[in-house]
Amino acid sequence: MSVRIIIADDHAIFREGLKQVIETTVDMTVVDEAVNGQELLSKVQGKEYDIVILDITMPGRNGLDVLVELKNIRPKLPVLVLSMHPEEQFALRAYKSGASGYLTKSSPSTELLDALYKISRGKKYVSSVLAESLVTGLSDVSQQELQHSLSNREYQVMSLIGSGKTVGKIADELSLSVKTVSTYRAHILRKLNMKNNAEITRFVIENNLL
Q1: pTM of the model
Q2: Which residues in the chain show pLDDT less than 50?
Q3: Neighbour-count burial of 149, counting CB atoms closer than 10 A to its CB (0-12 exposed, 13-18 middle, 19+ buried)
Q4: Closest by alpha carbon to 88, among 146, 138, 162, 145?
Q5: What are phi and psi for residue 53, nearest 5 degrees?
Q6: Sign (positive/negative) of CA torsion 121, 127, 133, 135?
Q7: Percentage, residues of the chain above pLDDT 90
Q8: Domains along the chain with CATH numbers
Q9: CA torsion sign, 141 to 143 to 147 to 149?
Q10: Cα separation, 190 vs 168, whole angstroms
């Protein structure tokens, strides 16, 4: 019986590319698509799937928050997070939120298929890049404190500030208002005991979050 997959990503060309890769297999099929988190949640409530491929950065709700709600609705439904963000930024938070695997969009198609096969058998998939990072001390004290202090959306905004993006550009990318992003920024500064974007950027760089 073919493994039924739903892809949640707001880029149509990327979804089409994924379908072409998956269609090279004989036992996995993309049966549905969603362009944002809310559409994905609506579909998993009404239909049965075997695997979800989920992007983190989509219009509207943060992908990791969507992942948490999805796991509340379908606790046993495996989710592979496929993101443009490197493992060091979001992989640990994705696993903590219930993901069965995490890959970057730059990963080769063979690794994507390996991850899907492993997840379809009820196992977790950890990339070699993330495994090496864990061994070399990704989860140091500052990283652990960060994991616990910031919400998923605050963490995402912090990473984007650290990459040099303005509040306006972040608002456009996340489909949020400038006021909302500014509020997240204020929460980040308060929680991390910082004063400005320069300190956020230094923290992001020192903790290898770019």
Answers
A1: 0.70
A2: 138-139, 141
A3: middle
A4: 138
A5: -105, 120
A6: positive
A7: 54
A8: 3-134 (3.40.50.2300), 141-206 (1.10.10.10)
A9: positive
A10: 20
